[in-house]
Amino acid sequence: MLQFTKKILNAQKGDKQNRPQCPFFYLCSMIRRAENKDIPQILELLHQVNMVHYNLRPDLFKPHTTKYNEQELTSLFADDTQPVFVFDDGGGVLGYAFCQITEVKDHQLLQDIKKLYIDDICVDERARGKHVGKSLFEHVRDYAASIGCNNITLNVWEGNDAALSFYRSMGMSVQKTTMEVKLEK
Q: pLDDT digits over 117-165, tens only?
């Protein structure tokens, strides 16, 4: 086991030639900050998320596009107030979490608070059910705690029942609800 562990640590440092075949997929993977080399795979995942949203709300989302382009991703990756984490299995990015850190201080109405907002989280549709999302969420939770955040928030679209169920299983609960009424044109 010690030899296997050493190979995993070396693989995480970039020694891909000696990477062992891992019987425990999620243990041999690594969550790290996104890098520019990840952009093509992240763009593919952004497309997957967009199509989920488009299928739920074609009145709001355009098909076959992404939330960010390559240049915007490069800028985001360099911004420590908006960390992007990726789940890398050694063969590529299987998931990501886009985060935003905000802080309220000395507000007239609100208490001082530091929070982490998950702007977007995605697991490649081919890797679902392999604990990628759980690993990413737990990493983000640990990161938020380590930098002194009071809470983690995110938005989920009505009708995205799989995501809602996942977030509840991670201990999240409803903080507020956004309502709408559609108007005739």
A: 999 999 999 999 999 999 999 999 999 999 999 999 999 999 999 999 9
Map out the domains of the chain as residue ranges. Answer: 26-169
Verdict on whether the full-model pTM lies above 0.90: no
Rounded distance between C-alpha atoms, residue 14 and residue 49, angstroms:
29
Q: 26-169: what fold?
A: Aminopeptidase (3.40.630)
In 3D, which of 137, 169, 136 has the Cα closest to residue 152? 137
Q: What is the 3-state secondary structure (H, E, C) of 89-139?
A: CCCCEEEEEEEEEEEECCCCCCCCEEEEEEEEEEECHHHCCCCHHHHHHHH
Long-range contacts, 121-127 (Cβ 8 Å, 24+): 121/95, 121/96, 121/97, 121/154, 122/45, 122/46, 122/48, 122/49, 122/95, 122/96, 123/87, 123/94, 123/95, 124/44, 124/45, 124/48, 124/93, 124/94, 124/95, 125/48, 126/94, 127/89, 127/94, 127/95
